[in-house]
Structure to design on (450 residues):
């Protein structure tokens, strides 16, 4: 039975359910980015350029961890969605409890590991001496909120696999409001960078605490029992088999971006500030592309679990169309507002011009991202996570690294650095497209034999 907050993925037309699923998921992504956006805005306006530059250098590092956890949580999403689609509700409940234990272990483990690696990573990125202390302070404190971030991602995956995307959105909305209000309070008290990042850490725990409480007092499959928490080996193996390649894909993706950030740092303070603010817009528009991908993964997982392979492929087709069309409209709006957006953050004219260049070469080519995100999402929904991860690593990460160390060495400029983004996305489209087609042919042959 489908409740008022649950989307039916197994029956009826696909366009509207996919859209209704993707938009709240995108808003979740945007609200997650709002934590950093709020910090950047408050620091830029009321603390100083040094603090703003420090946080801008930390964003790629934070991105590595966030994408890793979101990727691994996709494994839980697919596993639970399969059980839901196949009406294996007892198995789904076991997978839910396993997911929560796994999330707690991952969150705590990576917080400890992250604190050990902060100093060498900060130095590797060639952060300028004048902001290195603030960059290290922000990152060390930010990592204390990592268990809350991880738990939120995994609990949200549980809700998504059931078809409920509204509840995680509302929980995160409340957390975002708390973060924004607290930021204003601590700045007015003169607590500066430490106060701003401290409120962000506290806000990271608001969403997961609310969602876990709802699960504790919920009914049916989405109900947790204190005595049922354990790691089911079969579920852990499948979650990690699907999730780790997706997580590592995002992690390597951001490692390449760290190399790009180092190249940008060599262009001077104006380029650093322009990139930091431009990245805010990028990180608040790209979640829509990711959201349609997550919709495709979840719908495919449920329909694959129900044995409806034809509908699973239709999900990829309609999901890609929706993502492409929505992204095209969003891109036009974003580019029209780009200059006003950059000026709003208090950048001088030189930095604004650099920021506009970046946005036109990145957001302007986001339509390329809809193809590889949608097709790789479909493959993950079928349980094939390693192939798209390899394709993304080669197509995007290696292309960017090669571009930075060859083309940009010959023609060193901010604009030339930015060209690595659309070039790498085109390479990823070609590789992912070939792999998706190969998967389709294999499935067709398997069906013909059966």
């Amino acid at each position: 039975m489908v409740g008022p907050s649950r989307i039916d993925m197994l029956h009826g037309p696909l366009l509207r359910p996919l859209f209704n699923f993707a938009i709240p998921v995108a808003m979740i992504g945007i609200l997650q980015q709002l934590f950093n956006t709020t910090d950047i805005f408050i620091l830029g306006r009321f603390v100083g350029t040094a603090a703003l530059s420090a946080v801008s250098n930390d964003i790629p590092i934070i991105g590595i961890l966030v994408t890793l956890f979101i990727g691994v949580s996709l494994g839980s999403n697919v596993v639970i969605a399969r059980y839901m689609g196949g009406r294996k509700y007892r198995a789904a409940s076991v997978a839910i409890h396993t997911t929560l234990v796994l999330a707690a272990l991952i969150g705590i483990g990576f917080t400890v590991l992250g604190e050990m690696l902060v100093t060498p990573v900060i130095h590797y990125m060639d952060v300028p001496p004048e902001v290195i202390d603030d960059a290290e302070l922000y990152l060390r404190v930010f990592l204390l909120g990592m268990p809350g971030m991880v738990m939120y991602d995994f609990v949200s995956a549980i809700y998504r696999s059931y078809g409920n995307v509204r509840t995680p959105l509302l929980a995160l909305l409340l957390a975002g409001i708390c973060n924004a209000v607290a930021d204003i309070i601590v700045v007015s008290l003169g607590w500066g960078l430490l106060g701003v990042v401290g409120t962000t850490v506290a806000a990271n725990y608001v969403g997961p605490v609310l969602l876990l409480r709802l699960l504790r007092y919920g009914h049916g499959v989405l109900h947790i029992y204190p005595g049922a928490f354990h790691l089911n080996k079969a579920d852990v193996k499948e979650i990690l088999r699907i999730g780790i390649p997706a997580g590592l894909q995002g992690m390597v993706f951001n490692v390449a971006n760290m190399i790009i950030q180092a190249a940008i740092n060599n262009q001077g303070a104006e380029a650093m500030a322009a990139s930091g603010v431009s990245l805010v817009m990028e990180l608040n528009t790209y979640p829509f592309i990711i959201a349609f991908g997550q919709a495709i993964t979840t719908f495919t997982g449920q329909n694959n679990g129900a044995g409806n392979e034809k509908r699973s492929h239709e999900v990829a087709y309609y999901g890609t169309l929706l993502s492409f069309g929505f992204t095209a409209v969003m891109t036009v709006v974003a580019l029209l507002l780009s200059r006003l957006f950059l000026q709003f953050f208090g950048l001088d004219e030189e930095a604004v011009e650099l920021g506009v260049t970046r946005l036109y070469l990145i957001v302007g080519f986001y339509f390329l991202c809809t193809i590889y995100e949608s097709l790789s999402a479909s493959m993950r929904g079928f349980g094939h996570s390693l192939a798209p991860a390899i394709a993304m690593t080669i197509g995007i990460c290696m292309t960017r690294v090669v571009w930075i160390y060859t083309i940009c060495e010959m023609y060193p400029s901010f604009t030339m650095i930015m060209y690595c983004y659309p070039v790498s996305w085109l390479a990823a489209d070609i590789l992912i497209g070939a792999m998706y087609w190969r998967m389709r042919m294999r499935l067709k042959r398997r069906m013909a034999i059966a």
Notes: The mean pLDDT is 84.
